Amino acid sequence: MSSLNQKNVLLGVTGGIAAYKSPDVVRRLRDAGAAVRVAMTANAGHFITALTLQAVSDQAVYRKLLDADSESTMGHIELARWADVVLVAPATADFLARLAHGLADDILTTLCLATEAPVAVAPAMNQQMWQHPASQENLATLRARGVSVFGPAEGSQACGEVGPGRMLEAADLAERLSALFESGALDKVKVVITAGPTHEAIDPVRNITNRSSGKMGYAVARAAAESGAEVVLVSGPTYLSCPRGVRRIAVTSAAEMHAAVLREIADADVFVGVAAVADYRPEKFHPQKIKKHSDRLTLELVRNPDILAAVAALDNPPYTVGFAAETHNVEKLAREKLLKKGVDMIAANQVGDIDIGLESDENALTLIDRGDAVSLPRMNKDKLARALVAEIANRYCAKSRSKNPRRARR
Ligand code: PMT
Questions:
Q1: Does the residue 65 lie in any domain?
Q2: Is 85 in a helix, a strand, or coil?
Q3: Which residue range is the domain that position 122 belongs to?
Q4: Ligand 1 site, residue 365, Cβ cutoff 6 A
Q5: Number of structural domains in the chain
Q6: Does residue 262 sit in the same domain as residue 353?
Q7: Best of 215, 277, 339 to mutate for ligand 1, by most ligand atoms within 8 A of CB?
């Protein structure tokens, strides 16, 4: 499975002959599991119709900046936020110049300025135009700002000339885009992650559980794998499929999760406890279904082991990150948990009567360690997990280098 799986790709199409390849680009991206939305410039319309791109992407195509219809479905700022990555293919010399100079006079340049997502361009133009110092200076400016430049390829051109300026093939573009999500920041680092709820059995048909869907923990596992880590995901019961490159250990109860984590942790470098582990379990498991004999039923509960605290208390603990799901006084209670459980960092997570966090596709976190807190604002869980994993990678590497040479990156 590609790293583009479940990613939101905004494809920009500008006015060059290579725009005839854009439907194939859309198809390759969708084959790789990405959701694709297309924004095209007015000149692109001379080479490819919006209807074709709408048909292959299965989404309305964005053509104008101030278009009442498009703005009423997903406005351009919302679209810029939606994107996990922007790919402009083909990118003409004119578009690259306008992007380099920060113009925002059409839908595509505006989206490129408004997005926080990485931007990649696939230049396509006549070979003289490509080699012109103005084009090369614009490219250098864009590269310096972190824009990825894919290609161009060399060969015979639509204008009859031969040289550099052909847009890369669609399959190549999809592969390069996928590679953007594989950062290598956690190369050869073993990361153990817990996710999802636990089920604490009362009898063969009933259990105590909570609303965790596992989405946040799975997103963290996916982001860690994309960063090059060897990822073990100890997962409570969920309906989610295992992310690419991740080894999943399925468990049911807190006791099973505790045992699985302890089996995996000895050679782990990083531990992230995202699971909503049940704090208590029924003291007694009833081997037969409990019958309704009376109006009241009392269940005696006993404490479950605290997995996070147990990992942090190991002799040579990994870099340990906990989550703190709280409904009120979120930061204060998270700080208390950081100290009580002895972890390196805690991600404070507001839950309760809000539309993000538990079960939702979106979340927001405040990362707290012994230094300043870092806020990761509301965004989709995949994006949030990538930001979280980048923070963990920085702090883990800094700690490994300064304090514990044995755990320095291998
Ligand atoms: O799964 P989703 O629907 O995507 O929702 C994500 C989430 C809201 C569940 C997740 O982002 C989150 O906040 N997870 C932590 C939930 C939780 O149990 O928090 P807590 O404050 O009760 O626990 C603090 C920490 O100790 C957590 O890292 C937890 O994994 C860990 N813990 C708790 C109890 C226990 N017995 N063992 C533990 O390891």
A1: yes
A2: strand
A3: 2-179
A4: no
A5: 2
A6: yes
A7: 277
